């Protein structure tokens, strides 16, 4: 059993890669399930051995990719506490928040080859949960948009300003309006604890959506 | 006695210089001036160009003519970053600037820094802040500075910092002069004894400092009132002079170091802090005596005192606000006790907290009778508000009669210690010396009390209504007493009953037929009969009982007399407020009324001025009417109305002053009268009583009406006041009947009439249905009880919650199964203050919250209760409402806000409450300036009696608390919230309660069976190694200080990095430290040491297969290398050697353990017998949560722990096992031992050992299905588990479990279960809310 510490560059990258890949799938799926975009722009693909929906709108895809590209260094350094997909109504008030709360397990280890398949199983569970989450959520008002927020740990924001991963795609501090939700209700969807990452997904939903 | 002299002084100095007086107006003005200053400063700086910040933190006040002028000084302060105060504030002004001062002012300014203006000019020239010492106007002013310094020093555990004596700096005679009061008792003492024993100050720094701190408070007293000196004199001979002398010496001896440090300190520039503390100390004696008097409200004398105190304290909250934090003072206290001789300890010294309740009889007897000025004093305080605005503030306290009771009380205090000394003639010598120290210590802790709670105590001693409300408790106690007396004495006489019996017999002799019918009627129809006795407009009838000419006239009890008009005050807009209140009354919808605040006054103009009184010159009196006669009620006057308004409604309205004495007297008479009939009495208030007359009626064979008649006649005769009696088969009906009975009547609501009667009643007449619920019901279309009967139970429960819904459902049918309770259970304990709250800074508010929390703590402790839910209620000035309310010091128009937080554990600690409340306060984000009222309420109370009460109060008292405590700590410190986060490795020796000579192992972890199951050959249990360090606030300082330095460091370190440390391994470190540890004093050891021994023992009979004990080390690979590296060298080595030794198993050792166990068991079960029983009971109560089945154990062992199949074990010598075993957390946490036994850094949250969802579900199902009524502790366990899940960020599991429980519990037939679920859910939601800012959606 090899025990790798947080400082291991390799390790952080592995985690970040896995997570960003997953997040991309998840975001697409959320957009589809929550009907932020018309279902016509989505295509059925296969990921983690389950069907998922992926947008084929190039600009949207680019946006998601860029965003995640910027998230990745944060995850690598374990600076990202939460990655939040916010669905906002026409007035740009959030109606739903899909919160991926990421933390590192207390005992980090990449022990064996079972790792990847194990993690994949866990991530698949997430995906499946997302695809059925409309059962527990109230439907959204029409005309929604979305945005991605990252809650960073400590002083990570300062470093972020220095290192811009993609030119002309900087992080900005979220508006209070985008962050604050009235009477949020919390619906836990899935929690996973693996050797490399501990992540839980919950949805915060505005009590009165319309 | 001498102290009394100081106190008197204080009262004068504090009050009549007038500087202390600062009501709302002055505060407003001062803050305005400050703002002007701030605005002007940059402008001035611009003009001048040259500016600096030399005087940062310096606030000056210019007194009299100065050279340069005050204006010039102001300009200089602006330029150089200082503050300039137009009005002197003891707490804020740091320096007084004056060229010369008249003698009277010198007297006033004792204790303050009076400095020549050259200091400022020279400092500006020099470009930096010069020490002000050489610029002091009067060098001897330094003397009184000592108290401030003293306090600081003691709080820093003054030791080496004292330095050598330097008498040259301050000529001793000068300082002695300062402290020599003209009191005759002191005159008889050699003037300068200090020189004879100058070293004493250094020998006993702590106690001396205390005594000096206490005594220096008011250095220059002058006995102006001979009347109150006289009782003192009688005590002079009884108190041996050596004692006094010694005290004097101590003081004198202490002066030197103080002077020393005061100089160095002032040079180092801590002036502000010094001064603040100084000012504080000066006011504290007032509060001290006051806080005592508040406790004695039942007594006429303290009552007067309390009122008087207002003059000194309540009106200048600014002065009181800078309170030193309690812990430090606490430490003072404990450390101060240290050096005292055992004789001094054994002496029964007056506990400052206890004292007010049980003043020694002797002293009470010797006290002069309460001055007959009660009425006057009352009047004086009532009109005090007026007084204050009309007169310059300095005159307020000039009335000697007002101050006199205060002094009296101070004397009273010192008497008590004297009298204890006298009580003990054989030990005269030791006690005489100890009495001085004990009195000083009681003084110091009383100071503490005064500093923290004084302001609030003042308020409560002053608040009339509060007093009345406290009476109820008093009467309840009275009833209780009756009961206990009856039990003790066997048969008691019921004079009333006997009389009634006789009259019945008489009657029966007269007409047998009538009696027969009565008897049969009673027996048949009245099964149970509750009588509700209510005095008719109590205050009024008491007020006019000796004024027959007022009978039949409209009379109101209020503080205002005369025309109902008062002079107008600046800034107030009574009209607006009046309108607001009116609208509040007329429009029941407050939300709407709120928005109307801005409506112009002319629109409604409610004041019709019939007699053309000029509205501008005088405003309507805002004095509220406490009670009014029925005649007045007919005219539309209502209780609670403002007197001015009432006077308009009913011009002939007469006002009667409050007469608390009479109320008390009458109420007591009434209770006595009723107690003459039966003891089945429930005290509702001072004028309202419930009587369970069932037994009485059955015994006497009279009808309820006859009984009521007799009672009413009796009351009328004895009190000259009328009472109404309502009767019914239950409490509700009795109360409702009283409504009909009033005034001066009686009504028996027969059960056959109930339906008709109740159907037409408005819902609001039901108890518990207030305006809010009334409105809610009205919105449902429910107005009468008949309407309410149509609503289904489920609907009501849905709308109002399960309990309220059910109550409503029953009430509207006239059903009420509440018994008449002689002992009332308290639902909440609260302290509120909405008078004279004007803060200017946040820290003032925080300080006030702390004080108020201490008041709550006091009340909780008095009631012997502890609560979990803390509510902060705040009144905030409504936007647009006038800054200054019409009623002086009142709250005006306010928004009422409330925030609630659930503590993780029941508490009666003011500190914890304060912390929670201050947090709440900050989250509310209010303007402190707009605060008008603050209240703290504690709910979800539980009694203290169930758990062991210990003297310090800060210790954790039970296992459960230990558990909960931890989670509290975790959360409050915002650390990594996992269970283990708080569990600290720490040397266990600090906690070992037994002398090291008894090296018996404690079978602490025998419960943990994993090891024994895996290696059945050697049945052994695993040792839990992690030890919890209690949070700093819970640790007895003295114990900590008594520890060797390294241990102390460890403990302190563990506090600092609580979140990072984990327990990686057994704690061999204790091996090293153990021998060096002195045996802790048994009294204080438990502060650090928590496991109640008894709990451990129990495990053995339960699991007989594992009697042995083995110390187990975790697998080496599981040891966190970081933590290992962080361990001290020798520990590392020991650990290593331990790992090396693992292979050498020593069977003998095991044998010896096993042999010793039975012995141990006996011994230990003796220690904690009570608890063992309790645990046993609970276990046997078949609560599956606690039961651990093998299945679960296996799961727990295998699942996340990743323990290797063959864990390595080691043997240590027996004594090690003992020392380590004893304080292990398994003892403190026997309910979830499995979580602890895993040596992974962060065990998964587990419920009774189960981690896996299916196991937990099984557990829960078993729990819910097999038990009809859940134990509270089990529920708390579940809550704890849920909280752990949240902390562990496993919301999914939480969600599943909550949903599962919801299904289980709500389906259960027992409604208790659904309540239990509600409780769990509520708690979980609170935690989720805290962690995530949102609540779980539970479909």
From TrEMBL, chain A:
Domain HORMA: 13-203
Subcellular location: Nucleus
GO terms for cellular component: nucleus; zeta DNA polymerase complex
Entries under Pfam families matching the protein: HORMA
PROSITE patterns (UniProt xref): HORMA
Gene3D superfamilies: HORMA domain
Main location: nucleus
One biological process term in Gene Ontology: DNA damage response
Keywords: DNA damage, Nucleus
Protein name: Mitotic spindle assembly checkpoint protein MAD2B
Organism: Collichthys lucidus (Big head croaker)
UniProtKB/TrEMBL annotation, chain B:
UniProt keywords, alphabetically: DNA damage, DNA repair, DNA synthesis, DNA-binding, Magnesium, Metal-binding, Nucleotidyltransferase, Nucleus, Transferase
UniProt-annotated binding residues for Mg(2+): 534, 687-688
Pfam entry (one): IMS
GO molecular function, one term: DNA-directed DNA polymerase activity
Superkingdom per UniProt: Eukaryota
Segments forming domain UmuC: 530-770
CDD domains: BRCT_Rev1 (cd17719), PolY_Rev1 (cd01701), Rev1_C (cd12145), Rev1_UBM2 (cd19318)
Cofactor requirement: Mg(2+)
E.C. no: 2.7.7.-
Gene3D superfamilies: 3.30.70.270, 3.40.1170.60, 5' to 3' exonuclease, C-terminal subdomain (1.10.150.20), 6.10.250.1630, BRCT domain (3.40.50.10190), DNA polymerase, Y-family, little finger domain (3.30.1490.100), DNA repair protein Rev1, C-terminal domain (1.20.58.1280)
Biological-process GO terms, alphabetical: DNA repair; error-free translesion synthesis; error-prone translesion synthesis
Places the protein is found: Nucleus
Biased composition (Basic and acidic residues): 327-336, 588-598
Residue spans of biased composition, Pro residues class: 993-1002
Listed Low complexity bias regions: 246-258, 429-445
The BRCT domain, residue ranges: 50-137
Region Disordered: start-end pairs: 150-267, 298-375, 393-445, 585-615, 964-1035, 1051-1084, 1177-1209
This protein's GO CC annotations: nucleus
UniProt-listed PANTHER family: DNA REPAIR PROTEIN REV1
Family as reported in the entry's similarity comment: Belongs to the DNA polymerase type-Y family.
Protein name, per record: DNA repair protein REV1
Organism: Collichthys lucidus (Big head croaker)
């Amino acid at each position: 059993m090899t025990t790798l510490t947080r400082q291991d560059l390799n390790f952080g990258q592995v985690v970040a890669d896995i997570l960003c890949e997953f997040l991309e799938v998840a975001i697409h799926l959320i957009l589809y399930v929550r009907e932020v975009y018309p279902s016509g722009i989505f295509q059925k693909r296969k990921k983690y051995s389950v069907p998922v929906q992926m947008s084929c709108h190039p600009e949207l895809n680019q946006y998601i990719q860029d965003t995640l590209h910027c998230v990745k260094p944060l995850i690598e350094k374990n600076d990202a506490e939460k990655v939040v997909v916010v669905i906002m109504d026409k007035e740009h008030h959030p109606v739903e928040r899909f919160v991926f709360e990421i933390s590192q397990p207390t005992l980090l280890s990449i022990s064996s080859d079972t790792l990847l398949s194990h993690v994949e199983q866990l991530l698949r569970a997430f995906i499946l949960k997302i695809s059925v989450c409309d059962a527990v959520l109230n439907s959204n008002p029409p005309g929604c948009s979305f945005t991605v927020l990252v809650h960073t740990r400590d002083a990570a924001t300062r470093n972020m300003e220095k290192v811009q991963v993609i030119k002309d795609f900087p992080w900005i501090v979220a508006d209070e309006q985008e962050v604050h939700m009235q009477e949020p209700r919390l619906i836990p969807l899935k929690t996973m604890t693996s050797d490399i990452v501990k992540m839980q997904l919950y949805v915060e939903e505005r009590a009165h959506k319309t | 006695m001498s102290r009394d002299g100081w106190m008197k002084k204080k009262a004068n100095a504090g009050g009549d210089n007038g500087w202390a007086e600062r009501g709302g107006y002055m505060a407003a003005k001062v803050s305005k001036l400050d703002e002007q200053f701030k605005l002007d400063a940059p402008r001035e700086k611009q003009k001048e160009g040259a500016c600096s910040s030399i005087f940062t933190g310096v606030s000056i006040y210019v007194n009299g003519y100065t050279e340069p002028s005050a204006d010039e000084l102001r300009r200089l302060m602006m330029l150089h970053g200082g503050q300039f105060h137009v009005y002197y504030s003891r707490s804020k002004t740091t320096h007084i600037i004056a060229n010369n001062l008249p003698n009277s002012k010198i007297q006033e300014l004792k204790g303050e820094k009076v400095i020549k203006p050259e200091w400022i000019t020279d400092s500006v020239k020099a470009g930096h802040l010069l020490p002000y010492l050489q610029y002091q106007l009067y060098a001897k002013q330094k003397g009184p500075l000592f108290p401030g310094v003293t306090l600081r020093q003691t709080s820093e555990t003054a030791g080496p910092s004292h330095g050598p004596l330097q008498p040259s700096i301050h000529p001793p005679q000068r300082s002695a002069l300062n402290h020599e009061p003209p009191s005759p008792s002191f005159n008889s003492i050699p003037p300068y004894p200090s020189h004879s024993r100058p070293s004493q100050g250094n020998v006993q720094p702590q106690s001396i400092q205390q005594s000096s701190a206490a005594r220096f408070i008011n250095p220059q007293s002058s006995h102006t009132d001979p009347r109150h000196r006289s009782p003192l004199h009688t005590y002079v001979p009884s108190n041996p002079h050596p004692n006094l002398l010694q005290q004097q010496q101590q003081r004198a001896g202490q002066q030197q170091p103080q002077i020393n440090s005061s100089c160095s300190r002032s040079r180092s520039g801590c002036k502000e802090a010094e001064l603040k503390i100084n000012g504080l100390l000066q006011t504290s004696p007032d509060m001290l005596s006051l806080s005592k008097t508040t406790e004695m409200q039942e007594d006429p004398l303290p009552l007067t005192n309390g009122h008087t105190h207002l003059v000194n304290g309540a009106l200048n909250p600014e002065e009181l606000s800078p309170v030193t934090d309690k812990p430090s003072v606490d430490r003072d206290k404990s450390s101060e006790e240290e050096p005292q001789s055992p004789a001094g300890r054994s002496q029964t010294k007056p506990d400052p907290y206890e004292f007010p309740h049980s003043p020694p009889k002797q002293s009470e007897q010797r006290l002069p009778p309460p001055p007959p000025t009660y009425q006057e004093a009352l009047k004086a305080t009532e009109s005090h508000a007026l007084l204050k605005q009309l007169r310059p503030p300095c005159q307020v306290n000039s009335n000697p009669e007002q101050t006199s009771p205060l002094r009296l009380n101070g004397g009273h205090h010192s008497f008590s210690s004297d009298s204890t000394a006298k009580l003990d003639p054989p030990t005269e010598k030791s006690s005489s010396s100890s009495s001085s120290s004990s009195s000083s210590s009681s003084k110091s802790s009383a100071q503490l009390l005064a500093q923290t709670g004084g302001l609030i105590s003042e308020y409560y001693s002053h608040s009339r209504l509060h007093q009345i409300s406290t009476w109820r408790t008093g009467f309840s106690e009275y009833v209780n007493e009756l009961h206990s007396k009856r039990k003790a004495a066997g048969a008691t006489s019921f004079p009333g009953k006997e009389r009634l019996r006789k009259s019945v017999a008489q009657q029966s002799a007269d007409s047998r037929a009538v009696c027969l019918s009565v008897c049969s009627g009673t027996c048949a129809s009245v099964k149970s009969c509750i009588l509700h006795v209510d005095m008719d407009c109590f205050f009024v009838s008491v007020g006019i009982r000796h004024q027959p000419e007022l009978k039949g006239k409209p009379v109101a009890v209020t503080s205002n007399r005369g025309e109902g008009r008062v002079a107008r005050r600046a800034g107030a807009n009574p009209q607006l407020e009046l309108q607001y209140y009116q609208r509040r009354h007329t429009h029941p919808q407050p939300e709407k009324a709120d928005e109307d605040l801005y409506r112009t006054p002319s629109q409604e103009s409610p004041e019709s001025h019939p007699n053309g009184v000029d509205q501008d010159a005088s405003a309507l009196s805002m004095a509220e009417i406490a009670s009014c006669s029925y005649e007045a009620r007919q005219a539309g006057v209502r209780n609670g109305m403002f007197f001015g308004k009432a006077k308009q409604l009913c011009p002939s309205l007469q006002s009667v002053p409050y007469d608390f004495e009479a109320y008390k007297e009458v109420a007591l008479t009434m209770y006595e009268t009723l107690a003459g009939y039966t003891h089945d009495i429930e005290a509702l208030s001072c004028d309202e009583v419930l009587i369970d007359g069932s037994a009485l009626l059955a015994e006497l064979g009279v009808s309820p009406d006859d009984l009521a008649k007799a009672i009413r006649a009796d009351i009328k005769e004895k009190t000259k006041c009328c009472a109404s009696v309502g009767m019914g088969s239950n409490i509700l009906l009795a109360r409702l009947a009283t409504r009909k009975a009033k005034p001066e009547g009686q009504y028996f609501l027969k059960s056959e009439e109930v339906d008709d009667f109740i159907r037409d009643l408005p819902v609001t007449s039901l108890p518990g249905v207030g305006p809010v619920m009334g409105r809610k019901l009205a919105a449902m279309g429910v107005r009468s009880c008949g309407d309410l009967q149509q609503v289904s139970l489920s609907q009501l429960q849905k709308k109002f919650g399960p309990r309220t819904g059910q109550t409503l459902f029953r009430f509207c049918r006239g059903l009420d199964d509440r018994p008449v309770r002689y002992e009332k259970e308290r639902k909440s304990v609260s302290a509120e203050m909405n008078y004279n709250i004007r803060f200017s800074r946040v820290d003032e508010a925080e300080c006030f919250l702390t004080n108020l929390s201490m008041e709550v703590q006091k009340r909780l402790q008095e009631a012997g209760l502890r609560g979990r839910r803390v509510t902060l209620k705040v009144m905030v000035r409504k936007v647009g409402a006038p800054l200054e309310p019409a009623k002086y010091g009142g709250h005006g128009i306010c928004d009422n806000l409330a925030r609630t937080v659930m503590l993780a554990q029941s508490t009666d600690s003011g500190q914890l409450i304060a912390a929670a409340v201050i947090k709440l306060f900050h989250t509310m984000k209010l303007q402190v300036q707009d605060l008008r009222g603050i209240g703290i309420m504690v709910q979800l109370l539980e009694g203290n009696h169930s758990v062991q009460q210990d003297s310090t109060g800060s210790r954790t008292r039970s296992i459960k608390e230990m558990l909960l405590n931890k989670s509290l700590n975790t959360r409050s410190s915002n650390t990594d919230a996992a269970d283990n986060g708080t569990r600290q490795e720490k040397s266990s020796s600090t906690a070992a309660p037994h002398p090291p000579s008894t090296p018996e192992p404690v079978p602490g972890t025998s419960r943990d069976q994993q090891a024994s199951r895996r290696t059945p050959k050697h049945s052994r249990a695993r040792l839990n190694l992690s030890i919890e360090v209690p949070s700093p606030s819970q640790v007895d300082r003295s114990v900590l200080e008594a520890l060797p330095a390294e241990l102390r460091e460890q403990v302190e370190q563990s506090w600092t990095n609580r979140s990072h440390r984990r327990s990686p391994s057994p704690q061999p470190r204790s091996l090293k430290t153990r021998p060096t540890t002195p045996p802790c004093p048994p009294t204080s050891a438990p502060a650090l040491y928590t496991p109640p021994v008894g709990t451990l023992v129990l495990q053995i009979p339960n699991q007989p297969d594992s009697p042995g004990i083995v110390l187990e080390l975790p697998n080496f690979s599981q040891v966190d290398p970081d933590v290992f590296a962080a361990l001290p060298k020798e520990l590392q080595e020991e650990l290593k050697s331990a790992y090396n030794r693992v292979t050498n198993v020593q069977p003998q050792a095991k044998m010896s353990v096993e042999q010793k166990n039975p012995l141990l068991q006996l011994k230990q079960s003796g220690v904690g017998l009570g608890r063992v029983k309790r645990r046993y009971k609970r276990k046997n109560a078949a609560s599956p949560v606690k039961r651990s089945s093998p299945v679960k154990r296996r799961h727990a062992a295998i699942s996340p722990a990743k323990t290797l199949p063959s864990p390595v074990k080691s043997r240590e010598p027996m004594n090690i096992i003992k020392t380590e075993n004893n304080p292990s957390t398994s003892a403190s946490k026997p309910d979830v031992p499995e979580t602890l036994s895993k040596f992974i850094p962060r065990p998964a949250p587990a419920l009774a050992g189960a981690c896996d969802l299916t196991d937990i579900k099984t557990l829960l199902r078993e729990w819910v299905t097999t038990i009809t009524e859940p134990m509270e502790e089990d529920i708390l366990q579940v809550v704890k588990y849920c909280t752990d899940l949240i902390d562990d960020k496993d919301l999914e599991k939480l969600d599943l479990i909550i949903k599962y429980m919801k299904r289980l519990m709500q389906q259960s037939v027992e409604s208790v279960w659904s309540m239990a679920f509600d409780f769990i859910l509520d708690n979980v939601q609170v935690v989720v809310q805290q962690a995530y800012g949102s609540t779980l959606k539970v479909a």
